[in-house]
């Protein structure tokens, strides 16, 4: 067993006791039967406008599970060179999970600090997948086909090309610790906005409690990634890492459309922001003037992970779309 494998296992074990305590609390009221029966009253998740369509809390949590599959596979491969086991990709009823394209181990040997961050985030994302699957039970969707390839024809390079970052060649998130952080930056900010946008759609306060817990963790992850990129960008301006985050944020804004200003939800025409200084201060936490983080609808989230604007049902990191009821972008 390699040192990296052993360290990652130790990290997982250090979280086991806390996870078990949380599961004991949720087990009775947060089981598969309760999830399947809870409904969100007549809400359209794509547009945020009330319609006749109804989604259950299980639909919303399964949407989140798709995103957790994606994040877990990326981080586990970057840290360990292997992804989720088949036991954590099949549906709750036993249907086999989809295929995984790409993924590679990052050489963190020259950057032990980022290596430590990556191991911690990988352990957290594995815990999220495990937790959501356990609570959804037989209602849990299988992992869809996922593409995390760092090749020239992969989604990371497509996203970087859309952001104008590939003039010097194809972008591979596994090529260096800095590239890994930029790949993580693409995911983590989206994860925070996805959970914040979905929170009001949950009908059960227990489900909201769990979602808020995951949202907080994703926000911590985003801050770690943004802080690391900012520090590296200040120390070595020639790497243009700060400018790269601005380009990625602009590309995400172009994919999910221009939201109208809403100071309560934190949304606005330029809600997605990189880490460049605003005035004399850094922008590690992208907030509006009321100090609020912004939200995205599920449709906007899918626009970004599908790498397509407008209405789409597949593409980008999910070449055949996500699994579950909520699968259309726009």
TrEMBL record:
Compositionally biased intervals (Polar residues)? 255-267
Among PANTHER family, the record links this protein to:
DESICCATION-LIKE PROTEIN (PTHR31694), OS05G0151100 PROTEIN (PTHR31694:SF26)
Region labeled Disordered — which residues?
A: 255-280
**The protein, known as:** Ferritin-like domain-containing protein
Alphabetized UniProt keyword annotations: Membrane, Transmembrane, Transmembrane helix
The source organism is Sphingomonas hylomeconis
InterPro entries with a match to the protein in the record: Pigment-catalase-like, TAT_signal
- Enumerate the transmembrane spans: 25-45
